[in-house]
Design a protein that fits this description.
homodimer, about 190 residues, mainly alpha, Arc Repressor Mutant, subunit A, Tetracycline Repressor, domain 2, about 0% strand, DNA-binding
DNA sequence: CAACGTGGCGCCAGTCACTGACATGACCCG
DNA sequence: CGGGTCATGTCAGTGACTGGCGCCACGTTG
């Protein structure tokens, strides 16, 4: 038995994703996940705060990546340009993990409870982006609004990209941020 | 006993709000809510799908109001102008209900689980807005993006208004949509 | 090497959200 | 007045989640 629980943790994530695909989230019990991972149900809850969290691991890394990407965007850019730049960068990780992210997305999309959790995570990440913008001297109110708006564009791009992965995420990002400009230009 | 359960339903909502204020959401059981409302716990779940839903009633009305407000905005406006107009209108109901909405907001703000649910509701309402925009011949992708962006501005305005109700919601809405324009103009 | 601390885990009992099934009594309609 | 419908009460059950305890594998220290 490994000293650190990282092994069990990974097995739990794997088992959960498999079971959610096979039977759906609602028809899967935490006991079954634990059993497939070869651990006790109690151990499941030592690794993940609740049944949903098993699909949302690594959030801290994401937060850090986002904050860093925003912080390290070139000087002199306007808020949306900063965000486009940052999302291009963090999006690479997404493109690299597509084979893992895809079934995960499918399960989340099929389960209202998981969608709800995803929205909460996204809101939290948008807050990180807003804070990172403030660090770059974007005024308080504008930072929050830019972060949420930019995040909406980002999700739109990811959505378009999953439907049409051929073009690459960057192209869809450019498209989405262009739409943003269109909206404000005409309205 | 009244033929329709509307009476019990209202008592349940009242009892829930009170208890959530007194003890907090997590330290309140559905049995306690039902007891204070003078009904059986089972009846609680006949009226509300889960423990959180008791604070999110009337969503259907809101959806209808939003859709109508967007549909009835003057002709010839650009997407953001339509939304500003629609939010001005639906916002009046909010201003009228402030004494009820305020404690509700406080409870939600203090409870992560309720915030999560609120985000889900908001996402759903933004979808309604997007669909209403499409009905007005706004192109598909732009409609979704405009709805989400406009919704972010709306929330920002409501937030600012709760902190400073003196100015009226309309002023804050104007401010938020102006910020939106600023963002795109400079970026 | 031996004693010790620590951390991951199994186990058990308990609470609480939520559900399905059936019974009952109030109401409305013919 | 008889029958149907609807809100509710009652009860048993499932499953998510928690606290507490003890165990054992490991690393550390003397």
């Amino acid at each position: 038995m490994p000293r650190s629980g990282l092994e069990a943790r990974r097995r739990l994530q794997q088992a959960a994703l498999e079971l959610f695909q096979e039977r759906g989230f609602d028809r899967t019990t935490t006991a079954e996940i634990a059993a497939r991972a070869g651990v006790n149900e109690r151990t499941y809850f030592r690794h993940f705060a609740d049944k949903r969290e098993v699909l949302f691991d690594g959030e801290d890394d994401l937060r850090a990546s986002l904050a860093q990407a925003v912080a390290e965007a070139p000087e002199g850019l306007q808020p949306f340009e900063i965000l486009l730049c940052a999302f291009r960068r963090t999006g690479r990780a997404l493109e690299a993990n597509r084979s893992f992210a895809e079934p995960r997305f499918a399960v989340i999309a099929a389960t209202p409870a998981l969608r709800e959790r995803e929205l909460a995570k996204h809101a939290s990440l948008a807050d990180v982006v807003a804070e990172a913008l403030r660090q770059r001297a974007v005024p308080d109110r504008l930072a929050a609004l830019a972060a949420q708006t930019g995040w909406a564009a980002y999700r739109q791009a990811v959505q378009a990209w999953t439907n049409d992965p051929g073009q690459g995420l960057d192209a869809h990002l450019a498209q989405a941020f262009d739409d943003l400009r269109t909206l404000s230009a005409t309205g």
